[in-house]
Target: Glycoside hydrolase family 97 protein
Amino acid sequence: MKKTIVTLLICLIFTGLHAQNIFSPSKNIKVTFDINKKGQPTYQVFYKNKAVVLPSTMGLSIKDAEDLTHNFEVVNTENLSFSESWQPVLGEQSSILNTYNQTRIYLNQKETNNKLNIVFKIYDEGVAFRYEFPLDNTVNYFTVSNENTQFNLTNNHEAFWIPGDYDSQEYAYNKTKISDIDNSKIDLNNGVGLKSITSQYRVQSPLMLKSSDGLYINIFEAAVVNYPIMHLDVDVNNFQFTSNLVPNALGDKAYLRTPSVSPWRTLMVSDDARDIVSSKMILNLNEPNKIEDTSWIKPMKYIGIWWEMHVGLSTWDYAGSQNAQNAGTAFGEMIPSGKHGATTENTKKYIDFAAKYGFDGVLVEGWNTGWEDWYGKWKEDVFDFTTPYPDFDIEEISKYAKSKGVKMIMHNETSGSVANYERYLDRAFTLMQTYGYPAVKTGYVGKIIPRGEFHDGQTMVNHFNFVAQRAADFKIMINSHESVRPTGYHRTYPNYIAAEAARGNEFNAWSNGNPPDHETILPFTRLLGGPMDYTPGIFEIKMNTYDSTKTEQVHTTIAKQLALYVTMYSPLQMAADLPENYQKHLDAFQFIVDVPLDWQNSIYLEAEPGEYLTVVRKDKNTERWFLGAITNKDPRKTSISLDFLTTGKKYKATLYLDGKDADWKDNPKSYQIITKEVTSKSDLKLKLAPGGGAAISFELID
Amino acid sequence: MKKTIVTLLICLIFTGLHAQNIFSPSKNIKVTFDINKKGQPTYQVFYKNKAVVLPSTMGLSIKDAEDLTHNFEVVNTENLSFSESWQPVLGEQSSILNTYNQTRIYLNQKETNNKLNIVFKIYDEGVAFRYEFPLDNTVNYFTVSNENTQFNLTNNHEAFWIPGDYDSQEYAYNKTKISDIDNSKIDLNNGVGLKSITSQYRVQSPLMLKSSDGLYINIFEAAVVNYPIMHLDVDVNNFQFTSNLVPNALGDKAYLRTPSVSPWRTLMVSDDARDIVSSKMILNLNEPNKIEDTSWIKPMKYIGIWWEMHVGLSTWDYAGSQNAQNAGTAFGEMIPSGKHGATTENTKKYIDFAAKYGFDGVLVEGWNTGWEDWYGKWKEDVFDFTTPYPDFDIEEISKYAKSKGVKMIMHNETSGSVANYERYLDRAFTLMQTYGYPAVKTGYVGKIIPRGEFHDGQTMVNHFNFVAQRAADFKIMINSHESVRPTGYHRTYPNYIAAEAARGNEFNAWSNGNPPDHETILPFTRLLGGPMDYTPGIFEIKMNTYDSTKTEQVHTTIAKQLALYVTMYSPLQMAADLPENYQKHLDAFQFIVDVPLDWQNSIYLEAEPGEYLTVVRKDKNTERWFLGAITNKDPRKTSISLDFLTTGKKYKATLYLDGKDADWKDNPKSYQIITKEVTSKSDLKLKLAPGGGAAISFELID
Model:
């Protein structure tokens, strides 16, 4: 357990019974809480005295009982100012400050005498509140049929949104006015395999917004535990957003008992976008670390047998058809295709490469039986998570990896059959322990079983959290793909080191891909909840390298791929391309070799959602700094002051830059590498190509 | 694997393309298969040339695809006569004959070219058929939305029925004409905690019927694997029954892929009720044993800490309230009630008693945490199946039991949270293995989680079968309560030695109970599918013994309780009453001590559903015979010829009989024990009291 220093704990004051004003420590943010004439709890948010959220109701509808939405009176109010700093096991910074003003409002529902508390925590960069269901309620077990939390905004802001899909977040962002949010107008031929969009006017959170007068607003949630994910229904005429909880097969949203709490509903607001992108509010709103011994939780830079399947060089399944019946595999002998990726021989090749360049791990997908029949069948018993294909000698591989000082990363694709995965979970983890795999990448491609559940429902939220907990029993780290997007639970279970849960780099290999602005938006949305396994590092950018008929490509330059290792914080980072492609560009590859994954400090120098992002980070263990800068489709010039460097010290800066003629579309592989001696007084002028980036390492010169 | 002798395998003949007559080996039963003008497959059944089933359609509705109900043509027909004998691991007889005539009809659906096979197996005591979905269908993965199998009977027979409840079979039987089947007329104040009856005119199978001209008819199913349970919709005016498959939350019935098969639909018919009650057809229709080493599968006679909770002497939960919140247990320290049954001390008392009287096992319920909060809450994470209450020292108990030569029987109540049980299953079984528990009683009281599933749906059928398979990995035997009623799967997984899955003896302790005819009907219904853990042996029959305000009682005499050990075949039998109650009647108790649970042979001497049953069985390992005779509420006189005994040998018969004045209501505890010397030429005259019985042991006199 990391030590936690509480520096300030004052002002436990019981105050009056009516409209409450609550301020952020800086006083920039004010929240006004009140009960309206119907007895509905309402709140408003102001930033520097400007309204950000107009009066918005709060509350929940309860199945077969009185709704907790109306007829309330304030019984008492309790205020608290709090500040602590705590040390994450892995993170963007070694110490995190958690400073807020808190107000707990005790509500009583007249007639029913049901109790409901609403707790506000006001941070300098935003507002969080949640519902508390006290023990002494008349209804001890209850079913939430709806949550009625409103976010009534003041104007027709610009929004970065993806559709409210209960099964997937793997969309590129739409940038429109709130009034133009409309799921019926999206091009759905976007490579997303399973879509569950049930409303035209529903978006997902984190929802990033920008007002015409320069306010950055972000609506999200934190600490989603035993509760479904919140999407947002949009009133496009009145700029109002209302919580939409993901249902189960019966239409129920959440099964709760008292005492319990809802997740935190968050609204960040600032006139500086960097306040949003650097915020640790979501993490702070989660419970502290529950794992006592965290010595085994370590960052992992890895390569893997994975991209070669995406580009069509090899197959996940042994038989190559992904159809058990065609392959004759389900009912007879398996016929190898000759293109199977996860062979002992190929794995050793990757292990050798990992060992040579100091990677921590090697991921191998398609190593186990089941891939013949895994996709799109809604089949319950696809995988047993323990049986290797005949050409994958797990014992030999794990011995070989150990002899080379490389760790293997397990892969557990579930094809959405969660019921089956849970049956095998202990066996899967035991196998990992037996063969020394410290981490597992899990996958949830396909419709969920138990049938009727969605990826984002309470059952699945519980599943993902459960897997992290169970993995901790075995000292195994989790990297979940096609999972619920994280909401900071990795503070509580730091072995849950990464998730995909957004549109990753892989979409560039076989769909219309990720537009060049994609990675400038993710830090304002998906990454607020936790690290993403985005799988950057693609050097062979155009897919026609593999197949001349293909037109797909990564929407990037090589320099931008390098910059992503800094701009997209994750303690688990893949170098996703093939070893042979790195061999062709070992000079550029050196940045991936050098970049650390765990940081003492991070400074967001420049940030504008959809436009650009520049961040510099200091290695947790050395005096090295690493800078990443990216742009969208537009070229960009900027000048970076290096005043973050230690005064009076000299550094060697190695700049991995776009080539002069670089362009994500026409010339993505053009790059240049320059070294310079710099100090804290230096400025660096950077020129980013269209869809380009820059990556810089700073090393102390003794 | 028991050896299987196939004695006859002839007549693989391809015959014509239209109406087919198929006969039982005895020729008593004839089935006529045809395709009607709509291309619907139909069948009729005749018994001794008398119509039993009028033309009835067959087929299935498929979701999002052409229904497999119509437009069929016969492509080919294949006939086969088959006979084998096989040896069950445990059973009513040591060798079972499996003799039938089989016809497989290959159907093609015009236009779609979908294939469907219908396979008939005609036994001397009945008809079985099932659907086969061949590999080469156009639709490989498909969802059954309905099964349209009809059983159109000829007349308004008398029926022994319970309502078509998707979650429970724990009903007393109604005996009415088919025309009077009506779920709205049942008294539902019957102690059944969870009822899911969605149609007024739906009953469960096994459905026992009797025609006015003396035919006994039974509609059931066999080998329900990866398919929901079949209930029967009733057309009360036309005496037609149609399959009603139990749905999931989405209304879907079964998710299948080709090649696969449906369960067998069975209709037994005879003019002698004994042919039904002694039939091994259901077992024969299941796949052979899949467990290689069966040496660990053994019968178990057991006592347990269980009835004392039912009669109110002690509690399952440590805190005594079955409410975690009232007890303060969920959020603080557990406060013992002082009435907790599963204490180390109490368990040792039971172990001592078991050891003294040669019982194999001791069941202890309420040993583990979770019971504070288990009932009726639809709560997912009630039990972890591994954490004992503080007053249950599992290590000491298991050592003590071992020292006394007694085995402990585990108890895993799930409260219906199957999702959670599957997560902990390996850990639960590992605990059993660690502490030497060879068997587990599982429980499923409450609404199922995954939410929206019913006890009788495909998901739960798969769960129960999965638990048996997983248990076999650990060499553990399963006794499932509140489970799907068995359909012979214990042939395939003989470690699935018993189930409750009907209204057991416990209902007598706290509800209107089981009427005296109940145990005369069960062998014609529930027991056809497999052994039942009925928990007989209650000597202290009236509940006012424990609480003078109580009026509940077991609807029995003591002699009938003894007879049940013979009439209700099970390799797992409880002596359900308290040790102190047996101490008061050690002479009668001797029958329970003596009666074996595994048999060389069983002869049903007399049988009439709802009236009486007399069966005699020979011990598998000795020359001893045991006879059980029971009656309904009416007294009964009968004379039994002992010609089953070995000719020329002398036997000592010990008769446990109703006392002269015995009566289930007014004088249930009156019994007499008589010993006699008998031979195969003897007749025994028996007089059964109202609601009474007789139990007899025959021992060879050297």
User: Anything to note?
Assistant: The two ends of chain B are 35 Å apart (CA to CA). Chain B has three domains: 3-284, 296-501, 559-702.
